[in-house]
Write the C-alpha cells for this entry.
Amino acid sequence: MKHVYLDNAATTQVHSTVIAKMQDALANSYGNPSSTHSFGRTAKTAIESARKTIAKYINAQPSEIIFTSGGTEADNMIIRCAVRDLGVKTIITSKIEHHAVLHTVEELEKKDSVQLLFVNLDAFGNPDMAHLETLLQRDDSKKLVSLMHVNNEIGNKIDLEAITLLSKKYDALVHSDTVQSLGHYNWDVKAFPIDFLAAAAHKFHGPKGIGFAFIRKNSGMSCMISGGSQERGLRAGTESFHNIVGLEEAFIHAYENLDKEKKYVEELKSYFIEQVKKEIPEAKFNGHSGDLEKSTYTLVNVCLPITEDKAMMLLFNLDIKGIACSKGSACQSGSDTGSHVLSEILSKEDMKKPSVRFSFSTYNTTEEIDYTIGILKAIIEA
C-alpha cells in the first residue's frame, strides 16, 4: 500500500542528521548539565551553544531563549506569568487561537478574574485592526495581546508587526504563538518590539517534547515550574539535553536551507491548489489557505463537496488508502465537537461538509499529491 504523509502541520518527519546528533548525545554526553564535573560541563556547554545558535537565527540575545517541553508549555508559561508577575488584568485574543492559548486564557478568566476580550474577525478569519484598537482603548488596565502569527488550521498569516506596533501605542504586552512559523519564516525580534514568542521543534523536523519561549530581556517574569535554577531560573528541572541538541540541529537545517525548501514546498502547495480546482471544482479553500500570499506555504484547508453520510468516513477511507491528513487540526481531530476555528468563519451549510487540512514538507512529492487528489475524487464520485 502507498503511504502518503500530508499532516506536517501536526508533526514532521525527523531529519536523519537530527537523529544522529541525538543518538550521539544520548550515548556520549550523559552528564547532568547542572553537575560541575567534566561530564556535566560538556552537556552544559552544548546547551548554551544551542541557545546561542537559536538566538543568532532570530537576532535575539541568548538569555532571551528559554527551553521548554514545546509550544504548549511556552504559551502557558508566558500567559500565566504575564498575569501573575507583570500585572496583566486584560487579555485580548481571538476565538481561533490554538487551544494552548484559548484554554489557558479561559481558565485565567475564571480563576484569576482576568478580563478576557475577543477581537472581531473578518470572513476569512483575520483580526479586525479597528476593533483591536477599540479594545486597547477600552480602559487603563494592563493588557496582553495574544494572536498567533500563522493559524494552525487554516494557515492565515497575520500582520504581526502592525499588531505589535498598535498594541505598543497603548502600552500593551504582545505574545504570539509562532509554533507554525518559527523554522518556516525568517525572524528578527529586533525588527519590532514583540515581547513573547513560542516554538516547537517537531514542527520543523526536530524531536517532540522540546521547544522554546522567546522572552524579551528584563521582562520581569519569574518561573512557572519551581525546584531548580535551570534556564536562568525561569524553568526548573534537568534539561532534556538530547532533545535540545536535536532542536538545535533541526533549527540550523531549517534556516540554512530556508529559501530552497520554502520554494519547493510552496510549489507543492500551488500544485495541490491547482489540481483541486481542476479535479474537484466545487471544493472551497477555507480562510486564506488557498491564497499563497496571505497564508503559510505549508498547508491548505479544503471544504469538500461530500454528503454528511460520506463525511463521517472520509478520514477513515483516506487512511486505509495510506493517506494521512487531519480534520480540523490533529490536536482535536479525535473530538466530536468540530473545529472551533472553522465554526467561526464557515456558514452553517459548509460546516455540514467535511473540511480537511493537508500540510506539506520537503519529504512530499507531486506524485503523492496526484495520488491523494485521485483518491479524493474517487470518494466524492462513489
Observations:
- The two ends are 21 Å apart (CA to CA).
